[in-house]
């Protein structure tokens, strides 16, 4: 099968429009439509439903996208770097991620990095920002996806902004159609992260501005334990949708937006001035990371807004 047709299919799925996809790809719309018809004939299925506003994936189309997007991305990266000296680098890379990001980002990112750098061995540490920051300062983590930090020993650049939602057990009355006011959180039994950065910091700062008192009935540094406590009906948690989407879809948890005010938090990539990686290698890692995050957010696999700032260079200090 012609992999170009699969790439065309994925682009149309991302854009939701054959005409927009044709513009991005730089080919004529009739030619693109013909390639998709040929792909549908080869597979014996219908991939898109045509509407007045564009196209939508059919059930079969959604299955094809979920099974081909990552392998094609890995193939593209392997080909891109095949002739580069970077592909011959043999070393280890110590990568860190906060738990809420690791759930959606770890597997696709490591697949992409593994395709681009086949001789690099990856170690992933999953911990909260405070812990990862200390590990970076000690040289036990090279770079990490963390919440914003104010330590001038670290470089940081934003990647995404995630809206936070209130999450309750299956017996709760939470609904996506019924936002919960932030001040109402004061009356709830809350399960909160132990770490003072990230979500807990966002909640406490917002509560201070709103002049309400919120307290943690339970604190834990484990995302899984947090969700288990919520599922058991012992409390409520504030989480990004990516951290609880599977459980909400399965009916094990329920969620609702938070309003008055809406709250969100940022995640970005951080490292130290003492990063011991070749500059070109470190920069390419940043490129692959941003491309993967952009793909995940655009496709909806990561319910977040991509921060389209310039390419991250760990050798150029970021303002804190």
Automatic annotation (TrEMBL):
Entry annotated with the keyword DNA-binding: yes
Keyword terms, alphabetized: Activator, DNA-binding, Transcription, Transcription regulation
Residues in HTH lysR-type domain copies: 1-58
Record InterPro entries: LysR_HTH_N, LysR_subst-bd, WH-like_DNA-bd_sf, WH_DNA-bd_sf
Top-level taxon of the source organism: Bacteria
GO BP annotations, alphabetical order: regulation of DNA-templated transcription initiation
Molecular function GO labels: DNA binding; DNA-binding transcription factor activity
Family according to the record: Belongs to the LysR transcriptional regulatory family.
Described function: Required for the induction the katG gene for catalase. Involved in the response to hydrogen peroxide.
The protein, known as: Probable hydrogen peroxide-inducible genes activator
